[in-house]
Amino acid sequence: MISFLLIANLITFGIFGFDKLQAKRHQWRISENALLGLSFIGIIGAASGMIVFNHKVSKKSFLVKFIIVVLIDLVLLYRFIRH
């Protein structure tokens, strides 16, 4: 389980970086829904990618959705640990 989460977070981090590069090049982008879906599994990689690449941090609509994903992750983690 730990190795799966590590790989998922690394992939998510890389995809956030790739999307930022694509944005700078004005090329094809990864959809916000795909980024949020990846964030659900790789939340630490997503948050790190947002900070390191300064990606999506100024887009309020994305940040609100991202915070919702974080809250869902926290609730699921709490339920998993509790049972």
Word description of this protein:
The protein has 4 helices and no strands. It has helices at residues 2-25, 32-41, 43-52, 60-82. Helix 1 (2-25) packs parallel to helix 3 (43-52) and helix 2 (32-41) crosses helix 3 (43-52).
Task: Describe, in short, the structure shown.
With 83 residues, the chain is mainly alpha-helical. The chain has four helices and no strands. The chain has helices spanning 2-25, 32-41, 43-52, 60-82.
Helix/sheet category: mainly alpha
Shape: globular
Please report which band the strand proportion falls in: under 5%, 5-15%, 15-25%, 25-35%, 35-45% or over 45%: under 5%
What order do the SSEs take from the amino end to the carboxyl end, as H and E?
A: HHHH
Tell me the span between the first and last alpha carbons.
17 Å
| Radius of gyration, taken over Cα atoms and rounded to an integer in Å | 13 Å
Features:
83 residues, mainly alpha, 4 helices, 81% helix
Lay out the secondary structure.
Elements: H1 2-25, H2 32-41, H3 43-52, H4 60-82
Helix pairs in contact: 1-2, 1-3, 2-3, 2-4
